[in-house]
Amino acid sequence: MTSLKHGVNLSRRACRPYIKFLAAAAFLAVAVASPIESTTKQSPSITVDGISTYPGLGFGPMGPVAPMPGEPPGTQLRQQQETTTETTTTAKPKKERTFVIAAVEFHRVETPFLIGVWIFFASLAKIGFHMAPKLSKMFPESCLLIFVGVLIGALLLSTHSVHVQPLTPDTFFLYMLPPIILDAGYFMPNRLFFDHLGTILLFAVVGTVFNTLTIGASLWACGQTGMFGCTTPLLDMLLFGALISAVDPVAVLAVFEEIHVDEVLYIVVFGESLLNDAVTVVLYHMFEAYTEMGASRLMYTDFLAGFASFLVVALGGTCIGVIWGFGTGLVTRFTNEVRVIEPIFIFVMAYLAYLNAEMFHMSGILAITFCGITMKNYVEGNISHKSHTTIKYTMKMLSSSSETIIFMFLGVATVNNNHDWNTWFVLLTIVFCSVFRIIGVYIFSAVANKFRLHKLNTVEKFVMSYGGLRGAVAFALVLLIDPEVVKLQPMFVTTTIAVIYFTVFIQGITIKPLVKILNVKTAEKRKPTMNERIHERFMDHLMAGIEDISGKHGNHHMRDKFKRFDNKFIRPFLLRNYQGAEPKILETYSKLAMRDAIEYMQRNASTIGNISGAESMSAIFKNYTNSNFNGSPSFTQLDSSTWNIDMQELEYNPSKKDLTDARIHHLLAEELCKPYRRHRRLSYSRHAVNDRDLGTQVNYKTHMNIRRLVGDRKHHHKRSKRGKQDGKNHVTFPEFQQNGSAKQFTHGKKKYYRLDYIDEVLQEDEEQPRRENDDGGITFTAKSPGYDEVSPTSSHKENSSSLLNQLANLPGFNPLKARIVKQYAKTPEEILPTAVEKSLPWRRDRSTYNFVPNEDILEEDERRMSDDNDTYMTVAEQARVATPTATETMLPWKREEAEGTTALKQSEFPSWASNKEYLAYSSPSATFLGGIEKPKHPKSIIGLFRRESSSSTQAADLPIASDSEGKADSIKGDSSSMKGESLYSQPKQGPSLLSKRSTSLGGPSVLLMEDVAHSDPLGASSRPASIMQGPHRGQCRRGSMLELTGSLSRDAITEEKCSKSLPESERMGVRRLALGQQSLPREPFNRQLTMASNLLTSSSSDESSDENT
Amino acid sequence: MGNKSSLLLREEEIAQIQEETGFTPNQIERLYSRFTALDKNDCGTLSREDFLRIPELAINPLSERIVHSFFAESHDDRVNFLQFMRVLSHFRPIRKNRENRLNSRDEKLRFAFSMYDLDNDGKISRDELLAILHMMVGVNISEEQLTSIAERTIIEADTNNDQMISFEEFCRALERTDVEQKMSIRFLN
């Protein structure tokens, strides 16, 4: 107790404000509680048992405190209700007369209310600790919680609510313990656990029995000397020994979670604390029964029965757990239509396993542990990512709040008037507990070491013995002892509390520094890398093989056998999507891919804005507008290119959202599996960043990306469907649209873009509904910067569909962006209504006036290109600023329609994933930059970035590259949409284009201009106009689509194909492609991309399905 | 089986093997009996077929490689007992303060590495990795996926950008793995 006081002082000093806060909270609690007391006292239902402070079963006056508020309130409440009804009957006449406006009816809500209050304050206390870093650094949380509990208990005591005894064995075992154990079991590192199962069992079974017997016998022996001042029957002592010798999982978890010791050490101690439950329960019941029977009538058969009962309890509990675990796996196999309820199965079925085992007097802890261990593998294969997250957090929440409450109640329970303090008994118990724990550990670890590969060394032995904490389980068990039978029960209770305090406080506080002093290996938390995963798996097989050869049946052999059995019989039966052996490798791969993508997005949140911004339409817009304002003529060349004469292009005008979506998607896909790539990108971004851009950076992209990652799925379905419906539109890539719009902006006359955007803005409201109704024209987001590539028409449809799916995923469309544009271009000089309509792909279908022939000529375009370059850029920048809002509005779910889309088969994977052509395409930037000059440029930009851009030379190129990249995207769109352009402009610049770009005449701006020029819709416009208007139109679009796809798959698409099916103009695009292709041999990357995309989509599909439900 | 006993090892042979591999005489005797049990033809050497006759090994996805690793030193496709023991000695647990010649971490890693590296060029190429993945993961995963996994793996470990995993890179990739333990088994005495 001195230590306790010491702790109090310390903590007071450490954080006085928090203590005050907590004290206030405690007072509040008391204030709430005391009125209850008075009320409950009135109710006849509460029989305050004067003898026992701990009512044991049933509900205490404070009501049952359980983490699950939904529990039946029990008889007490019912009786209270009866009393209230009585009173109401007497009061009836009054009530009839007046309508009661406000009334207090506490009885009705008392029980759940109190539960809530307890949980609330316990959690509040937890917050308090973490607000005082010093405090939480010095003490384990469990200590602080107990301390708070003591404070509250003292308050309650001082207010004479002595009978408050919330921690009853029933509430503990039925409600508080299961969440903690389930959490432990579910997140148990299976492999580690089973690797050390032998050692764990040795300690848990033999070690616990050893401790029980030695502690009991020693205490009894000491009792014989009369030093305790009371009779100490052997059986009573053994009973006490049984409950006090068990290492407590709750306490161990609480302490070991904080010290992060080596995983082997952790699993051995923790596993022991879990598995010794069976032993404890059996020993406890055995000795309890013996005590009741009386020592004289014991026969040796009783001991045999005890042993048998141990087997039954342990194996029975395990079996029940395993069966329920398999059951859970089986049930979750069929939850794909109702994702929302997936988590409940995990919790409920595990809880049922626990109760089921308890029902048969088997070890509930073992049952729920093994239930968790068993179900984990199968459940995780079946449930969606969202459900997985839900389960994870719910479980952590439940277990940590249970733990909080347990320790707090432990503190509260300490304070009562019923202590029977026997100094010698307490002291000797503590001494024996510690000594025999140490002895036991040393003996059994010596035994275990004989069979262990990894020998437990002295330090580990010490930590193991020191980590043998006692906790709430012992306390709950001691409360269960019937004081009528065991006269020493009050003393046992006091002693148990003392032992718990000793272990939790003294050992719990000192173990942390000790671990440091002894230099115990601490665990490093990390996710396995691909290499580790594969090579370790490889080693497993290897070792299994070696064991077979050497004729030994060891761990590897057993595991191998089980795995084979599992893969052959169990998994196919329990898993919805049985992926074959080695799901872990796949899992790791997908996780890594995901992580790469997310990391990339997060890390580059700002840079993305900048870098990608350069590529993005928004950036372009911004630049454009700026140029307008500034009137800087630097990018004059762009002007000509920017002319968008082609109406189709206008149609393609992207919603900005589409642009963003496309870009992000692209980025993600690109980054997914290619660390190297990403580097390059990064450096781009870095170098490309303008000061202006920096100022406007927003994180929204990251958010969007992530959101997208998860949620894409739905869109896929819808989009794809739409795309199918209107075949015409689906050809259009969002990017193209984007590009188109960009070009329009750049258009010297500004009319087009202005018009478009304005219209968009105006129609924003309409857009959303329309989209739903409309086709998936939007759906295509081809990120590939590919120049025009034409694939044979036959393939068109396939591509288009796949593209559609892909596009659907893109987060691109934002009507909001339009607004931004509006701001900038407030003067809609010329209104091309068609343009607006066309800008939004979905509208095309409807638009009666589909094509407004653009009169501009190629030459004009070129001229304008040069003029407008500057403007182009500025516009883009400004647009970028606006994008965030746009994205927000863009929320994917809004777009989606409720239509039950029979998704194309793509639901599994986005169609584009399977579209080899698309996949083959790596990244536009790569194509442009890396491809041309340094095909295999090993230095990724990211690397550069990290290294603080070590290479200055690259730096120079980079900005250009980034710009060109951005352009590339836009260009693609243009090029695809405008075949005519390719004819005109390309012949001139065509093949050389790439080289030019790479060389970058004037710097980034020049490059941009060039790109624009190439891509210029105008060029396309003149010729294309004719093409489009004809019946070919649809085809043309498709062709453009194909082109894009083709560009994507540089490798896949050969010129031949293009030439066959495609008109000349398209061929030009092909040529460009060819150039790009040459630049980089990227096949591997592409594949990775595919893979990643598959993974992504699959995950997202899950989520989407969730949402749908 | 009857004449197996006649093939008992002589003392000096045991001593030599012990010297070379670090196995205790008991372990050697035990493994020798295993060796002779595998040697169906009683010729004192093992062929690949002898190995593959072990039922569990036969269904091991890597059985071919594992068996192959035993034949690294043999010229006639037969493995004698010494070679057999030499291979197995890679998997002896590491003892502190004792010499660990064939079973050091480095040797263990090298052994694993050589199982990947079929062409013995000191590097794991994409195809070699892919081959292993094929064996382990099986048929249920598409070729593309496997390829991308292999590529991802190589990129991850590849520090010198040669699209291959050299032994150094291999070791670095497994830096945090408890190879000493993962690649050790307890040989019975």
Task: List its salient traits.
heterodimer, A: 1109 residues, mainly alpha, globular, disordered N terminus, disordered C terminus, B: 189 residues, two-stranded antiparallel sheet, 11 helices, 53% helix, sodium:proton antiporter activity (chain A), ion transport (chain A)
Topology of helices and strands:
The complex is a heterodimer of chains A (1109) and B (189).
Chain A: H1 2-14, H2 16-42, H3 75-97, H4 106-131, H5 133-138, H6 141-158, H7 169-186, H8 190-195, H9 197-224, H10 234-244, H11 249-259, H12 263-293, H13 300-332, H14 342-359, H15 364-382, H16 385-414, H17 423-451, H18 458-466, H19 472-480, H20 489-517, H21 530-550, H22 555-574, H23 583-603, H24 605-615, H25 617-630, H26 638-642, H27 647-652, H28 656-672, H29 675-688, H30 691-696, H31 700-725, H32 727-730, H33 734-746, H34 751-773, H35 793-809, H36 815-824, H37 833-839, H38 841-846, H39 858-889, H40 892-895, H41 911-914, H42 916-920, H43 924-932, H44 941-946, H45 952-977, H46 979-989, H47 992-999, H48 1004-1015, H49 1017-1029, H50 1032-1048, H51 1055-1061, H52 1064-1079, H53 1083-1108
Helix pairs in contact in A: 2-4, 2-6, 3-4, 4-6, 4-16, 6-16, 7-14, 7-15, 7-16, 7-19, 9-10, 9-12, 9-17, 10-12, 11-12, 11-20, 12-13, 12-15, 13-14, 13-15, 14-15, 14-16, 17-18, 17-20, 19-20, 21-22, 21-23, 23-24, 23-28, 23-53, 24-25, 24-29, 24-45, 25-33, 25-39, 28-31, 28-33, 28-39, 28-53, 29-45, ...
Chain B: H1 11-21, H2 25-38, E1 45-46, H3 48-52, H4 55-58, H5 63-70, E2 79-80, H6 81-88, H7 105-116, E3 123-124, H8 126-137, H9 143-157, E4 165-166, H10 167-173, H11 179-182
Antiparallel strand pairs in B: 1-2, 3-4
Helix pairs in contact in B: 5-7, 8-9
